[in-house]
Amino acid sequence: MWIIRMLLILILVVAVTGFAMLNSSERATITLGTENLTFYDVPLVVLLFEAFVLGAVVWFFVTVFHEIKLRRIIRSQRRQIADLHGEIGGLRDISLEGLEDEEIPLDDI
User: Fold this and answer.
1) Are 42 and 27 in contact (CB under 8 A)?
2) Can you tell me whether residue 52 is helix, strand or coil?
3) Which of 21, 26, 32, 44 has its Cβ near the most Cβ atoms within 10 Å?
4) Which has the closest alpha carbon to 48: 77, 21, 74?
5) Per-residue pLDDT of the chain (109 residues; tens, 9 = 90+)
6) pTM for the complete prediction?
7) What is the CB-side half-sphere exposure of residue 13 using CA atoms within 13 A?
C-alpha cells in the first residue's frame, strides 16, 4: 500500500513541477479582501507555492488535533479495558459453593 501512495505522490509532484515550469512566465494580479490589498504582476509560481504552503500548514494543524483526539480515545479505552479485566478477575474469584443450593427463578434469567 505504501508503494502505491509513494507512486501517487511522485506523480503529483511531477505534475505540479511541470505545471509550474510551463507557467513560469505567467503573471497575475491578486486582490485580497478589499481593493486596498492588491498585488500586481505576481508570478504564478509564487502563488502556487504560497497556496501549497498554506494547505500544508492547515493539513498539519488538522492532523495534530485529530491525532490528539484519537490518542485521548485510545487512552480512555485502555483504561476501560483494564477496569473490565479487573472486574473479570474479581468475578473469577467469586465462590460458587453457595450457588448450588440456591434456586434461581426463571424470570431472572
Assistant:
1) yes
2) helix
3) 44
4) 21
5) 889 989 998 999 898 888 888 887 888 888 888 777 888 888 888 888 888 899 999 999 999 999 999 999 999 999 999 999 999 988 887 776 655 555 666 665 5
6) 0.56
7) 6
Q: What are phi and psi of 98, to 5 degrees?
A: -75, -15
Task: Provide the 8-state DSSP code for 109.
Answer: -
Rounded CA gap, 11 and 86, in Å? 52
Return the axis-axis angle of helices 2-22 and 44-92, rounded to nearest 10°. 160
Q: How far apart are the C-alpha atoms of 95 and 90, rounded to whole Å?
A: 10
- String of b and e for 73-93 (b: at least 16 CB within 10 Å)? eeeeeeeeeeeeeeeeeeeee
- Unique residue bearing C-alpha cell 504552503: 53
Asked if 57 and 64 touch (Cβ cutoff 8 Å), the reply is no
